[in-house]
Design brief:
mainly alpha, about 180 residues, 10 helices
């Protein structure tokens, strides 16, 4: 009986995507806007009773703290390709990558229109090193370890292949 009782009392472990977490937090925020006196713990108990879920208070509280700045995350999470995303990894040089992607997108469209080959690894490396020198303070201990290695370039190209290669969009529409 003891073993059966403990198995019945244990919560079923479940993982939630960022989209599901965000929807729950947005639902709580909407309830707070309607009634300023809404507290997370009683609201969560009511939700668990209504929906038949067993979300723990501390779990939802951690999600709530995680989504304090919801505007940029909401944009990322609501995209179609992030429906199953469970973790958002932050890359150390996101600003550099964003600017580099914009430069490569424009350059590759121009090269493609002229019938020339797309940007190669040497161009990407030189441009990334220039951007790093412009964007980051070289004396900063956190940013002095940037190495534009062959591995970084190949991972960068893989991460942003649809953004920097104009032909990848055409091929995806033809499938």
């Amino acid at each position: 009986m003891n073993q059966e009782a403990t198995q019945k009392r244990k919560r079923q472990r479940c993982s939630y995507t960022y989209k599901e977490k965000l929807e729950l937090i947005m639902e709580y925020r909407n309830a707070c806007e309607m009634d300023k006196k809404v507290n997370l713990k009683p609201w969560l108990q009511d939700k668990n009773n209504r929906d038949g879920t067993s979300l723990a208070y501390m779990t939802v509280f951690k999600w709530y703290k995680q989504f304090k700045d919801m505007d940029p995350l909401a944009e990322i999470i609501t995209n179609n390709h992030t429906n199953s995303l469970k973790r958002i990894r932050r890359r150390p040089y996101q600003e550099l990558e964003k600017i580099l992607v914009d430069i490569l997108r424009i350059r590759n469209k121009t090269l493609l229109a002229k019938g020339l080959p797309l940007s190669d690894a040497a161009f990407i490396k030189s441009r990334a090193e220039e951007l790093y020198a412009d964007l980051y303070v070289p004396d900063d201990d956190l940013n002095k370890d940037f190495k534009c290695s062959v591995g970084w370039i190949s991972r960068f190209k893989e991460r942003h292949k649809h953004d920097i290669d104009p032909t990848s969009h055409e091929l995806s529409f033809m499938r």
